[in-house]
Design goal:
single chain; 244 residues; alpha/beta; Purple Acid Phosphatase, chain A, domain 2; 5-stranded mixed sheet; 6 helices; 25% helix
């Protein structure tokens, strides 16, 4: 069994508000009687992609368990690579695979530099396909920033993942994929994609107001949220929590 914590959209910008909210969530995770096997952070770690924002993120995201990250549309690859990965600048997406308590986790880059919508580009799709081929017998999660389905909010749906059918085709050929995990929408959500569970993590920084709740886009007073995924017997169960 794997227990995975999942947060998204920290939008660290040097302000006290963003810092306190992200720190509160990490303090909560570090204090749990049973810590997670890993923490997934699905993008928009920084708000402006500035080096100082990633340096702050590197300090906040220190934990006694692995912290696995991928970029979002607010992230800048060069600064992200240097501060969070200790890597030199390089072209191309930031993709990584990890083994966590018998489950493989693919952290994929759906960002398009300079744009808010997302795409799993040919390099990333080829990497996903090759990695899944190598992990044919391993329960696998695929995590990235942009949701690949309609979430029924006009703003979020205008900047979601484009060409999701390419990923859907890959999943059809790889039955070991247990679920798809994303962020970006600033709202906890669950659905299906290509016949698999799709889970969208709530945001740390603010919560999306849904159209049927009124005209408010951002609820700044809602507490930061997180998800806990339990993966066992090639099934996933997700619990959502807020940190007050």
């Amino acid at each position: 069994m794997a227990l995975l914590a999942h947060i998204s959209d920290l939008h660290l910008d040097g302000t006290a508000r963003a810092t306190e909210r992200a720190t509160r969530v990490l303090d909560h995770l570090r204090s749990l009687p049973q810590p997670p096997d890993a923490l997934l952070v699905t993008g928009d770690i920084a708000d402006h992609g500035a080096p100082a924002e990633y340096e702050q993120a590197a300090e906040i995201l220190v934990a006694p368990f692995p912290v696995l990250t991928c970029p979002g549309n607010h992230d800048v690859r060069a600064a992200y690579r240097k501060a969070l990965l200790g890597q030199p600048d390089a072209d191309g997406p930031i993709n990584s695979v990890h083994q966590v308590a018998g489950t493989a986790v693919l952290m994929a880059d759906s960002s398009i530099p300079g744009r808010n919508d997302g795409l799993l580009d040919p390099e990333t799709l080829a990497w996903i396909a090759a990695t899944l081929d190598e992990l044919a017998d391993t329960p696998t999660l695929i995590a990235f920033h942009h949701p690949p389905v309609t979430l029924h909010h006009p703003f979020v749906d205008s900047i979601g993942l484009t060409q999701p059918e390419q990923l859907a085709a890959l999943l059809e050929a790889h039955p070991q994929v247990v679920a798809v995990l994303t962020g970006h929408a600033h709202t906890a959500a669950a659905g299906q994609f290509a016949g698999r569970p799709l889970v969208v993590a709530p945001a740390t920084i603010w919560t999306l107001g849904l159209p049927w709740q009124g005209d408010q886009l951002a609820d700044l007073d809602a507490p930061p949220g997180l998800a806990f995924h339990v993966v066992e017997d090639r099934r996933i169960v997700t619990h959502f929590r807020v940190v007050t």
